[in-house]
UniProtKB/TrEMBL annotation:
This is Tricarballylate utilization 4Fe-4S protein TcuB. SUPFAM superfamilies: 4Fe-4S ferredoxins (SSF54862), Respiratory nitrate reductase 1 gamma chain (SSF103501). The chain crosses the membrane at residues 105-127, 139-167, 223-245, 260-280, 292-314, 320-341. It comes from Paracoccus albicereus. Keywords: Membrane, Transmembrane, Transmembrane helix. The keyword Transmembrane applies.
Amino acid sequence: MSLDTTLDTNTEDLIAEARRQVEICNACRYCEGFCSVFPAMTRQKAFADGDITQLANLCHNCRGCYYSCQYTPPHEFALNLPAALAEVRQDSWERLVRPRRLARLFHTHGVALALGLVVGFALMFLAVSTMPPEDGEGFYAYLSHVAMVAIFLPAFVLPLVVAGVAVRDYWREIGAPRPAWRDFTVAMDRGARLKNLSGGQGQGCNFEREDRYTDARRWAHQAVMYGFLLCFASTSVATLMHYLLGMEAPYGPLALPKLLGVPGGILLTGGALWLAALKLRADPDLGAKRVWGGEMAFVLLLAFVAASGLALYWAGGTAALGTLLALHLGSVLVLFLLMPFTKMIHPMIRMAALVAEASQARRKAEGIGREPLAQT
């Protein structure tokens, strides 16, 4: 029995429409040289529900296929493959996390939810700071190190477990074969370079300017990705310095946590605001229109987390430090807690999709018979 029999009616309708469009595209094959979706599509003639979910998560919504297509409206086929795959992709993110209602709530009311939670947690941290620890410097003069660990460790680990379960369920749904180590290296290379955001042929993406190709969206994504990784590395290094070397914060401007965190914060802030600007210029009808607000809320939350962190760097020793710290900690806590329910889930599921695609491509090159991505 197929895993797909558990899908609800709305999911089945979205997949059925995406399947209709994919089958037309597979017959035409004009876009065969585009991103990873089209080579994967041409390896088969029939598509199970899990196959459509996999194709949707390979799609980076660059929209080049839409602007190259002769079957878009007003043609009777009415193809809008970027939007059809975006709806399936979005639905998969919402289905695979638990509880599902929270994911759907954020994606449809993201701005209000994120703003309310940030303000609420910031007020909580302000209240806690009125009872400061007996000793401590910098941030720890407002909230002890033990308290920070007690709050943020479970807020990071538990959502990460939820996200890991979602990735596991995604892998089961698409029915991918067991990957080889080389499949992970290929997927990591494509993910690190964001290869599919170059349109597959290196000419760039049509996301915000119709048939004008540009790498702006890829560069903005790379700024966000590498900025986030630098910030994460900064926190990780500071943790090791604290516990292994006994070197406690605050750190000087030339300390490794600052050398990693400041450039990371600048990249993350600039990249997130750039993505928001590109999103405002792009046609919402070529994506998952119903979650536009949730996507924008996530991008702005990332920007605020990074910008407030940079503000803390410059506010050290001033009267503004306590308020800025509360706002920053509140936004970081919201980002962590909502990680599986926002677009933060997409790098994890997309990496699984890239690994599955690398595995299928390798098997074809080695002459191994195709294993369907999803059982039918």
